[in-house]
Amino acid sequence: MTASSAFPGHAGRDAAPPPGGSIARPDLDRPSFSWLRVRTVVRRHGYVLFRSPHRWFDIAFWPVFDVILFGSLGAFVAQQNDTSRAATPYLLAGIMLFHVLFQGQIAVATGFMEETWTRNILNVMTTPLREVEYVLGLALVGLLKLCAAMVTVSIAAFVFYRFGLGEIGFGLVPVIGVLMLCGWCTAMLVIGLLLRYGQSAEILAWATTFVLLALSGVFNPVESLPPVIQPIAKVLPTTYAFRAARELLDGGPIPWNDLVLATISAFVLAGLSMFYVLRMLRIFRDRGYVTRYS
User: Fold this and answer.
1) Which distant-in-sequence residues (6+ apart) come within 8 Å of 149 by Cβ?
2) 97 in a domain, yes or no?
3) What pTM was estimated for this model as a whole?
4) Rounded CA gap, 281 and 176, in Å?
5) Does the structure show a pLDDT above 80 at 84?
6) How far apart are CA 27 and CA 139, in angstroms?
7) Residue 25, domain member (yes or no)
8) Is residue 19 assigned to a domain?
9) Would you list the DSSP string of 149-218?
10) In sequence order, which residues have a C-beta less than 8 Å from that of residue 129 and are 6 or more positions away?
11) CA-CA distance, 199 to 195, in Å (whole number)?
12) Closest Cα to residue 59, out of 103, 123, 109, 95?
């Protein structure tokens, strides 16, 4: 990637100068990065959210019913015998932390899909908006939605089951950071698939997080998974993040080994996901796939 934007609207800046003169380069007179354009992306998706009440389902309703479902399951298991009483905190902590991953991913992925649903991609690509500005804007939108959803699940867990993630302690902060990063990386992979294969790949926006739910040991150690699946689970950064959370919930010290492994693998995933989405963006432009959304 060059310093100029990869969007088609920036094409032609490197054209040959006219005879006897030099071509104008207006992009050299403005900063390569603009927070104004980032804020504009955030405002654009804010308008969509507040003018479409049904879009609050992922933030205000789904998290509550997840807490009720897994909390009730844990409460039922806890009634069976004294040994099972620990089930409720495990299930509640697991589903609450899963929503960090889920909300971070789905907010960014659906933010891009919003452009496809409204046939707005061509408009976005012909503006001075750069890729990094657009991605950062979506990430900030995802962070705001994540905060709103976590407030929702925290209130629901405390009101219904008197449970709060604060019981885990300071060690929860790096766990949440890793899960947020993994959510954004997964969203980048989904966006890359949407660029390459079109709207038929939209189902993956929801499917990918539930694949991670099954493979990451959200509620249980990965050793309880079928042996053939365990090698896949052990390369996922989310696996180590959830394992660290369970150790903290048991009252143990901060598991730095798991957190370091989770952080390193999350940054590797971030690099791979950015490479993939930029590669798919280049193919999207070169092959004219924008016509799918116009």
Assistant:
1) 58, 59, 60, 63, 99, 103
2) yes
3) 0.81
4) 29
5) no
6) 25
7) no
8) no
9) HHHHHHHHHHHHH---GGGG-TTHHHHHHHHHHHHHHHHHHHHHHHHHHGGGGTTHHHHHHHHHHHHTTS
10) 5, 7, 37, 40, 41
11) 9
12) 103
- Would you state the structure tokens that stand for residue 105, as one six-digit string? 């991913």
- Of 123, 90, 76, whose CA–CA distance to 220 is shortest? 90
**The pair of three-digit structure tokens given for residue 189, joined into one six-digit string:** 């992979």
Count of structural domains within the chain: 1
Token pair belonging to 220? 């249980």
d(CA 112, CA 124) in angstroms, rounded, equals 11
Alpha helices in the chain (DSSP H): 35-51, 62-78, 87-117, 121-125, 131-161, 172-197, 204-215, 230-233, 237-249, 256-286
Burial class of residue 193 (count of CB atoms within 10 Å of its CB; 0-12, 13-18, 19+): buried
Q: What is the mean pLDDT of residues 196-215?
A: 88
**Two structure tokens written together for 160:** 């219904």
The answer to whether residue 198 scores a pLDDT higher than 90 is no
Range of the domain at 264: 35-293
